[in-house]
Structures are given as structure tokens and as C-alpha cells.
Specification:
The protein has 187 residues and is α/β, with parallel strands linked by helices. The protein has helices spanning 2-6, 12-18, 38-48, 70-89, 105-114, 131-143, 151-158, 177-185, and strands at 25-31, 52-56, 95-100, 120-128, 168-171. 44% of the residues lie in helices and 17% in strands. It has a 5-stranded parallel beta sheet with strand order 2-3-1-4-5, sandwiched between helices. α4 links the parallel β2 (52-56) and β3. The radius of gyration is 18 Å and the shape is globular.
């Protein structure tokens, strides 16, 4: 408590611990273009963090045929915010990991405006990589039948979008998954 009495600024986490409230949750919003490694990184992050739950935004509108309309975009945003709030409000989880393409600041801002952030630390992260690394990853997925050929140009076109976002950038080019995950945990 001496820090408080001396007028020094202390972190939100330290203040919560001083009060005996260690219930602060961490919410990781992780974006990146298709093929950058979001899902792989987040699955590993889920395993390394205590009491962690993971939601991939793509799961919130996984349909056949896949249709992007104004109505389906509103629906997926509602689904995402509802699920994130359910996880945030559940005492079983200390860490909530969410990934989605999130290539526009408006998407991030909408999510942030509609989730319960009280007693939460929110980390907005963009995974980025160089074009060559991205092409190699996507070509591997195409060869395995996991993606179609048109994904390469669509994904490469989005690379510059992430430099404009208010997010922490983590370059995944030529990095092992564990290195990337440890970098995120260290933020």
C-alpha cells in the first residue's frame, strides 16, 4: 500500500492484487489475415494459459453455403459478442482467447464496445507475416485440400490492413509456434 500513499502510479493488476482481488481476466483478441497462423497459435495459447477458453470467430458463422451479407455480418458479430461475454462472465475462466480476421479497426471497436471489460485486461494483437511466408503456408493448406486457390490473393491483399490497426503487431514469419505463443504470453 506504500505505493498508493506515496502517490506513485501502480498498475491495475498490482492494485487488484493489493485488494485481494485476483479475479481480473485477460482477453486476447487476435487478428490476422487468412493463413497467418491465428487458429494454430490460439490453440497452443489455450493449452499454455491457465483456465483458458478459446473461440474462433469463424465458428460463429460456419455454414454451407457460406454467405457474407449485411444480415449475416450482423449475426456473426452478435454471436461473437454473446459468446465472449458468456466466457467473460463465467468464473471458470481467467483467460479468454478469441481469433478472427479482424482486418478493419471498426470490427475491433465493435467487439470492444459490446463485451464486458470491467475487471479485464484486453490485449488486441495482430499476427502479421511476410508475403513469402504467407504464400507457403496457404499453398501447403491448398495441397492438403483445406483451402481453395483463390485464398492466396485474397489473403495477400489484406496484409497492409494490419499496419493501420490499433493493435500489438507480432510477426510470425519463420517463427516456431511456441516462440509466438511465448511472445503473446509475455505481453
Amino acid at each position: 500500500m506504500n505505493e498508493v500513499l506515496s502517490g506513485e502510479k501502480i498498475s491495475k493488476e498490482d492494485f487488484a492484487c493489493m485488494l485481494g482481488d485476483e479475479s481480473m481476466k485477460t482477453i486476447y483478441l487476435i487478428g490476422g489475415t487468412m493463413g497467418v497462423g491465428k487458429t494454430t497459435v490460439c490453440q497452443q495459447l489455450k493449452l499454455k494459459l491457465d483456465n483458458c477458453v478459446f473461440l474462433d470467430g469463424d465458428w460463429c458463422w460456419d455454414a454451407h453455403p457460406f454467405m457474407v451479407t449485411e444480415e449475416s455480418k450482423r449475426m456473426v458479430m452478435g454471436n461473437i459478442c454473446f459468446m465472449l461475454n458468456q466466457f467473460i462472465n463465467c468464473s471458470a475462466y481467467d483467460n479468454v482467447v478469441f481469433c478472427w480476421v479482424m482486418h478493419e479497426q471498426e470490427i475491433i471497436d465493435t467487439i470492444l464496445a459490446n463485451i464486458h471489460k470491467t475487471d479485464c485486461e484486453v490485449k488486441v494483437i495482430s499476427l502479421i507475416c511476410d508475403e513469402e511466408s504467407l504464400r507457403k503456408r496457404l499453398e501447403k493448406d491448398i495441397a492438403l485440400g483445406l483451402r481453395t486457390l483463390d485464398i492466396i490473393n485474397r489473403s495477400v491483399e489484406r496484409i497492409p490492413c494490419y499496419n493501420k490497426l490499433q493493435s500489438i503487431k507480432i510477426d510470425t514469419s519463420n517463427k516456431d509456434i511456441d516462440v509466438i505463443v511465448d511472445e503473446i504470453i509475455g505481453l
